[in-house]
Amino acid sequence: MAHTISMTVNGNACTGDVEARMLLVDFLRDHLGLTGTNIGCDTSQCGSCTIMMDGCAVKSCTALAVQADGSDITTIEGLATNGDLHPLQQAFWDEHGLQCGYCTPGMIMAGVGLLDQNPDPSESEIRHCLEGNICRCTGYQNIVKAIQSASQSMEGGA
To answer: Of 76, 105, 121, at which residue does a domain stop?
Structure first.
């Protein structure tokens, strides 16, 4: 049985007919073509599918699309403004916080969630925030540096 859902994704109103069991990550990727949200494990272990839903970082492989009905969703594609990278995206570039890039969207979205809640997190708080995200390339140090850098640039810009 199909369910009609509506939500705002990256500032755009979206609707779709989905089965009750469809995962939110599959709706974003397959129905909306937003392939920046990656599928890594389908068990919430890797965090590569992290998005913002109603202001909270959510692993979209463990949320059903019907649960997002009426929600405001932001994916990695929705962070840049008028061609300018979000400060955290820029910091990942500047601080070499990525290598293969597979985990990067999820890491950035987890970092956005942290910085929205805590604009000046300690290194320990950053590392705690990233516990649900796996990176096999960078060793995390540059990812932590990128979040610290973005925190400082966002404070300076305010």
So the answer is: 76
